[in-house]
Amino acid sequence: MGILEDAVITAKGAVDFAGKKTGEIVELSKLRISAAEIEGKIKNLYESLGRSVYNAAKTETDATALVNEKSAQIDTLTADLAAVQEKISVLREEKKCAACGAVNAQDANFCKKCGAQL
After folding, report:
1. d(CA 84, CA 62)
2. Are 107 and 99 in contact (CB under 8 A)?
3. pLDDT tens-digit series, residues 59-69
4. Which of 4, 9, 65, 88 is 20 to 30 A away from residue 72, measured at CA?
């Protein structure tokens, strides 16, 4: 019975590990989708901002309030995107270089892009 019990325990451990990895993959996929959605919103805001500035220039009107409003929205979304990207890095066990922002392996001591100590 000892061999059978060991086999069951080993199988249970493998199933638990597979379940954990599957959960991480699902979470990572959700975060990537969220990041893509935020990037799309930022892109749309930039396009809208450009159109608004162009229209204001053509009609010789002041677009300062609109520019400030859209800039604030872009800043908020950019911060949201950075938070999602940070969560992705944590799940992928990566860390960012404080000097240049490059993504490095969790166990790296120096940045692969700029050589700064991590």
Report:
1. 35
2. no
3. 999 999 999 99
4. 88
